[in-house]
């Protein structure tokens, strides 16, 4: 079975070792797809005697089809440093009143005067249309 799709690809990362692409689908089976994002925020685990807060938005993804979202953000400063949080959410989980959310988890980059990382996990907020 073939389903016609259209969209665009964006190169992300300037460093050759971090070179990647993101695909954004704009139509699925001949029908336009509205994109959406999700808010996400939380507090990392306590490591090296402190934690970090974080808050941002997921990358856009098409509405109405199975999907995941990428995310990429910096934590707030704590103990004089920040950490990078990046990854991909899990698949969409329907909410009883409509809409959906995604779960996410991972570890930050290793930073700080005493090099360490933090764990993080949570669930996004409900979808917000980008159109």
Automatic annotation (TrEMBL):
It comes from the Bacteria. This is YmaF-like protein.
């Amino acid at each position: 079975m073939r389903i016609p799709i259209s969209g665009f690809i964006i190169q992300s990362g300037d460093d050759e070792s971090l070179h990647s692409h993101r695909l954004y689908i704009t139509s699925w089976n001949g029908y336009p797809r509205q994109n959406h994002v999700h808010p996400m925020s939380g507090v990392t685990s306590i490591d090296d005697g402190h934690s970090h807060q974080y808050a941002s938005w997921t990358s856009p993804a098409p509405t109405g089809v199975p999907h995941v979202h990428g995310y990429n953000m910096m934590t707030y400063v704590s103990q004089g440093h920040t950490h990078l949080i990046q990854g991909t959410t899990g698949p969409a989980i329907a909410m009883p009143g409509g809409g959906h959310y995604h779960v996410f988890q991972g570890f930050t980059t290793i930073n700080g005067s005493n090099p360490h990382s933090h764990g993080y996990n949570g669930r996004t907020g409900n979808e917000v249309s980008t159109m």
